[in-house]
Each structure stands twice: as structure tokens, then as C-alpha cells.
Amino acid sequence: MYNRFGLSIILLIFILSLGSCGSLTVETFYENGAVVTSSPTASEIGLEILKQGGNAFDAAVAIGFALAVTHPEAGNIGGGGFALTYNAVTDEIHALDFREKAPGGATVDMFLDSNGFVAENSSLLGSRSAGVPGTVAGLFSLWEKYGSLGWYQLLQPAYKLADTGFILDQYLANSITSFGNELKQFPETKSIFFPENIAPKPGDRFTQKNLAATIQRIALDSLNGFYSGKTADLIVETMTKYDGLISHDDLNSYKPVWRRPVNFQFDSLDIYSMPPPSSGGVLLGMILKLLEPVDFSIFAPKSPEYIHHFAEACRLAYSERATHLGDPEFVDNPLDVMLSDDFLDARRELIDENQAGISHEIESGIPQNFLESESTTHFSIADKFGNLVSLTYTLNTEYGSKLVVGGAGFLLNNEMDDFSIKPGVANVYGLVGGRANEIVSGKRMLSSMSPTIALKNGKPALVLGSPGGSKIITTVAQAIVNISRFGLSPEQIVNMPRFHHQWLPDSLYLEEGGFDINIKQALIAKGHNIHERSRYSELMIITINEDGMKTGAADPRCNGSVSGY
Ligand code: DON
């Protein structure tokens, strides 16, 4: 740890950080590496790897496996995700897609009953809700391309945590308890989380022997330790038992894909984020570019005028998501048009600074109520070599499909719900979709995950991302505005209350307790349908100044932590 300017400057930063969110913070700058994750144990593991001379990519692999043990609601080997990487030697930024795929046996109407209605919970619970997992292949591909330490070595911290166990903290004990009813539905899952049929307590030791053995097979045999051999057999056995679709062929043929990131400029930032099959990068670009010409000098970070402009930009950006975006292997995504000045200039004309738009007049669709879920996880890493990793991965909702692979100890995702399972019917995040995101065997479902990296004057400046389903994109966009337009520090940014609009449902979501009555009344007067939401995404952010000093912040809404040296 390195306190950059000594005590007097620390005090100055302390005072500066009293800002709009009212929290008292001291910013710590790290000269070498910084890691921000949703689990203190995983952050420490990442830091250890960096201290051993590993790079950010090594740390990402170790953290990715560690979170599968310490943060089972979202950390995973049975799910998938995306990463943005910056390689300091080549000065290149790449996007890694390890999103799940629809199994070979999947069909367009697989979640509809004989009357054509969506069978309740069918895309969210159990074997058929799972896509073919991509996490192990993704982390292996990251390591193969950029790793410097041994693969086996990087998986040992996770193996040990699973094998000898770790002490449950309040956060994880509460989380397991609150999902008890769902986790007890499958005996394979119950035996891990409720072994004696009693809720786990803080202070209990939590061991996961089958998961440990699976991690060790992957450590020894890399891809074959998961996509073929015993682990694959156990996945297919579980599918057979529960009438699922994932086959040996699906597992054997799964491949992650390195893609060209979405790239756009906002103020002085050169921003890179995730392309399809995530909608994250392009919507982030649209929102920020729609806002870019707006004069912010009269706005404050929570002013109704700013929130209104932001929400209107979101309404326009999200209206394009449903119609146009899908897996690029199956759909032609018009990214160049969506991010072009001509298109955005014309769309911006639709924004009235005094009056909220009406979503149904912009595009049609059928809004539905949607549930809250906070079960993806993001981590950001910056190393002493100048490399960056921004990685978001998930099981989709908390504990995914709730189905553990028998004998293998890991949960399967329920990512199939991210497909448009029927035109106009919203998914768990209230997102509607159409043909571009319909189910096709072997296709990747559309995502909102937005791991993001930004350069300033050609040098690394920002690594960030968040869980939150459809709210990921607005969380990341607000963080960037808060840095670039309002000059807030990472600590202030993670503490800021958030707001969200996604076109449909036509509602402006405000984080509960974050906005006073005057702000709400001003927004209602502009025509917004206000809804309050508790607990609202989990931003993990690192900023890097011109001297290469790193500072980070983990969202206080979760159990996250920053480690650095
Ligand atoms: O890919 C997506 O957009 C969703 N499956 C992400 C889910 C998520 O962020 C859940 N956590 N809050």
C-alpha cells in the first residue's frame, strides 16, 4: 500500500470525499496492483497472485475460480460471462465472450405449454433453464492468451477453499438462508447448502468436497477436466435425471470467442465495452453519446434535470435493444448505425427537456412486472505491468437454475431466460425481445453485461462493471458520467444512489432512500412514472491516474472489497 502524498494530502482527500453522497472516505492509492471483487477472500487471492509476480490475467483466473467457491450465488463454473482485456505490451484491447449457448436440442418454443403460454418458471428453474456453460473455457482462453503463471497453480486457492472449507460470513449465510426454499428443491443442491436440513450460520465452516474434486480435475486436465471425462459425464447424468438438454456434444463443442470490443469516445475518455451477444457496450455508447452535447454546468449528480436527460437517453437506447440485437453468429447487429452521429443526432431530437417521452410511441411492446435479482458478479483488476481485466460472469439469477450437478458440486445457470422466450413477453429483468433474440440451438442469449475499460490520452484510466441485469448498463453509464462530468471519486461513485430507465416498462426506477421528495416531485412533474427499488447493482471500479496510481472501490451494497499494494 502506498499513500501517495503523505498525511496532509490524505486529509485533503478525506475532506473532498465528504461530497454529495455524504460518506467519509479516505482514498488509498496503490502503486502496483489493485483488485476489486465481491468477496474479500477472492480479492485477497487476486492480490496474492499479483504479489507472486502474476499478471492481471493470472489474477482473473484465480479470482474466477475462487468466487465459484466463496460467492456461489453468482461466482461459478456452471455459468458464463464476458471480459474486456487491456494488454500493456501490445496496447491492445480485446473482448472475450464466454457466454452460455442454447443446447443442441433447444427449440424456439421450448418454454411454451400446449396453449402457447409460457410455462411458469420453466426458463428459470431446473435443468432446461441452463445454457451450455462457458466459464471454464473462457477463463482457460484468457490464461492461454495472456497468462504467465501455471494453470494448475492458479486453481489451487479455489481448490483449497472448497476442500478444507472457509468460515461463512453473515452475508453468505443470509443469502443461502433466504434462498432456502428454492435451494432445497433438488437433493443435489440441498446436500451442499443444507446438509443437515438446517440453515447455515455465520461462523460455520462451509466445505464443498465435490466442487473441490471438480476444480482439481480442471486444474489437472484443463478443458478436458470439465467439457469431457468425469465432469461432463456427471453433467449429462444430471440432465438425464431431470429431463435436461445439455449433451456431451454440446459440452465438447463449446468454444469461447475473442471479439472486437465496441469502442466510442465520451468527453476525453476512449471507452471499450462488450459487443453482442451483449447489448451492454452498444447501449452504453448510445446513452453516453446521446448525453454528450448536453450542457451539464447546471446539473448536479442527483438533480432532476440530469436524471430526466439520462432517463430519456436510456428510453431511446433500450428501445433499439429488443428489435436489433442478438448473437452475432445468427443476427446482423447494426452497431455502426446505432452508434453513428447521424442516427444519434436524429434520436436526440426526440428528447424534450421538460417532458418525459412515452415509450409506446417510440416502439411497441408489452411491458410486464419483473422481479429483482442481484446475482451476477463483476471484478476489476489492474496490475503493475499496466494490464487490465474487467470481467463480469454469472449464473443469471441468484444460484442460477438452483440445480447442482450431482457429484460435481457446482450450480448450473438459468441463462436460457435471457432469450426472448416468446415475442413481447418480458424476461426476469422486464426486458422484452423479438426474433433477433429468439431461441435457436447453439445460439448465445442476449446479455446486458458490460465489463468496460477506458483509456485517457492513450493510457489506462478506468476499469469497471457491475451485476444488475438490465440495470448493469445504466449503472456503468452513471459511473462514467459521475467521473467525467461531476468529478467524483470511485468511493463517492459506488455510494451514489442510482436510477434506471429501460424503455419498457415505461418506469423511472429510483433507488430507495436515495432521492428526496423534491427530486421525485420534479420528475413526476416532467411526466415520469416513478418506482422505487431497493438494493441496486454492485459497481466494482478502479481508476488509474496519469502517474499510474490506482484507486478502487467496491460497492457497499454487497460484500465486496478492494485489495492492492
Ligand atoms: O446476461 C445478463 O444480462 C443477465 N443474465 C445478467 C444477470 C445479472 O446481472 C443478475 N444480477 N444482478
Outline the structure in words:
- With 565 residues, the chain is of the alpha+beta class.
- The protein has 2 domains: 10-103 and 131-222 and 376-413, no CATH class; 262-374 and 449-564, Glutamine Phosphoribosylpyrophosphate, subunit 1, domain 1, CATH 3.60.20.40.
- Helix content is 35%, strand content 15%.
- It is built from 20 helices and 18 strands.
- The protein has helices at residues 7-16, 40-51, 56-70, 135-146, 151-164, 170-178, 180-183, 187-193, 209-221, 224-227, 229-241, 248-253, 280-291, 304-324, 335-338, 341-348, 359-362, 471-484, 490-495, 517-525, and strands at 34-37, 80-87, 92-98, 166-167, 205-206, 257-259, 262-266, 269-273, 376-382, 388-394, 452-456, 459-465, 499-500, 508-511, 530-533, 540-544, 550-554, 561-564.
- The strands form 4 sheets. It has a 7-stranded antiparallel β-sheet, with helices on one face. A 6-stranded antiparallel β-sheet has the order 7-8-11-12-16-17.
- Strand 11 (452-456) and strand 12 form a beta hairpin.
- The radius of gyration is 22 Å and the shape is globular.
- Mean pLDDT is 93; it is low at 1-24 and 364-370.
- 6-diazenyl-5-OXO-L-norleucine (DON) is lined by residues 373-376, 394, 396, 415, 418, 447-449, 467-469, 472.
Kindly identify the CATH topology of the largest domain. Answer: Glutamine Phosphoribosylpyrophosphate, subunit 1, domain 1
Provide the helix percentage: 25-40%
Strand content: 15-25%
Number of strands: 18
How is the secondary structure organized here?
Elements: H1 7-16, E1 34-37, H2 40-51, H3 56-70, E2 80-87, E3 92-98, H4 135-146, H5 151-164, E4 166-167, H6 170-178, H7 180-183, H8 187-193, E5 205-206, H9 209-221, H10 224-227, H11 229-241, H12 248-253, E6 257-259, E7 262-266, E8 269-273, H13 280-291, H14 304-324, H15 335-338, H16 341-348, H17 359-362, E9 376-382, E10 388-394, E11 452-456, E12 459-465, H18 471-484, H19 490-495, E13 499-500, E14 508-511, H20 517-525, E15 530-533, E16 540-544, E17 550-554, E18 561-564
Parallel strand pairs: 14-15
Antiparallel strand pairs: 1-9, 1-18, 2-3, 2-10, 3-6, 4-5, 7-8, 8-11, 9-10, 11-12, 12-16, 13-14, 16-17
Helix pairs in contact: 2-3, 3-4, 3-5, 5-9, 13-14, 13-16, 13-18, 14-20
Bound molecules: 6-diazenyl-5-OXO-L-norleucine (DON).
6-diazenyl-5-OXO-L-norleucine binds at residues 373-376, 394, 396, 415, 418, 447-449, 467-469, 472.
